[in-house]
Amino acid sequence: MLGAAIVAAAVLCATFAPVLAPYNPTLAEFAATLRPPTSAHPFGTDQLGRDVLSRVIFGARISLLVGAVTVFVAGVIGCGFGLLAGYLGGWLGAAVMRLADVQLSFPFILLALTINAVLGAGFRNIMLSLAVAGWPLYVRVVRGEILALRHRDYVQAAVATGAGSGRVMRRHVLPNVATPIIVVSTLQVSQFIIAEATISFLGFGIQPPTAAWGTMVSDGRNYIFFAWWLSAFPGAALALTALGVNLLGDWLRDTLDPRLRT
Question: Cα angle at 15 between 12 and 18, to 5 degrees?
């Protein structure tokens, strides 16, 4: 329930950011630079006089959108290759798994950062780089489940009735691997949110003046000794959102997996 509440609050902030934010997140007010938290600015102001609370609220849009879109794209690619590798097997399955193994041998954040550096900074490129770096996890999960399912009686019965490989995978195999896919996708949202913040922190992701939590933490590090709120509040929002998504993913795993109910 705590995870669901945190995720719901983040979604509400992202959806109704123009209504909830008390100020324009990109409007500079040089007469109010680096002011500590007050009633007028509960999270203080940054080096350009922008309201930190407003920027944190708008930053939820970037983080949640990156997390959702990249998980969807990586899931579609990974599940497609996982179905082919697990059900058809042969040289195609071996080639897919060797490609996934090679990619998994590189650290995830380093691979995503390298791809993003090649593609260039920007919102679209950071989502593409994270999706390309994240699809092998789905391949391994889906292939492992399908290897256990393809010899089940109902699958063999469908094959015996003359159903083609495409129909068997779509109607009989894929629905039975939906549960682990949902759980992995939920848990990977937080990984992608943190990865986006890391890449933006290093200067290869979302560029100013767009409000993004990683960029805000990076901008605040130069003022950390006398303006702690610049990095503390966006960092806390990032940590809470990742915690909420992880708690929600753990709950889904416990709820959808019948083996954990015994």
Answer: 110
Nearest to 234 by CA among 212, 252, 251: 212
Q: How far is CA 43 from CA 55, 174, 224, 228, in A?
A: 10, 47, 14, 10
Question: d(Cα 3, Cα 249) in Å, to the nearest integer?
Answer: 8
Secondary-structure class of domain 2-15+45-255 per CATH: mainly alpha
The CA distances from residue 101 to 12, 85, 187, 234, in Å, are 38, 13, 21, 35
Q: How far is CA 241 from CA 9, 75, 126, 171, 194, in A?
A: 9, 21, 19, 35, 10
Q: Which residues pair with 141 in a beta bridge?
A: none
pLDDT per position as a tens digit, 238-260: 999 999 999 998 888 788 766 55
Distance CA 171, CA 147 (A): 16
Whole-model pTM: value is 0.85
For the chain, which residues make up each domain, given as ranges? 2-15+45-255
Q: How far apart are CA 6 and CA 161, in angstroms?
A: 48
Fill in the amino acid letter for 112. Answer: A
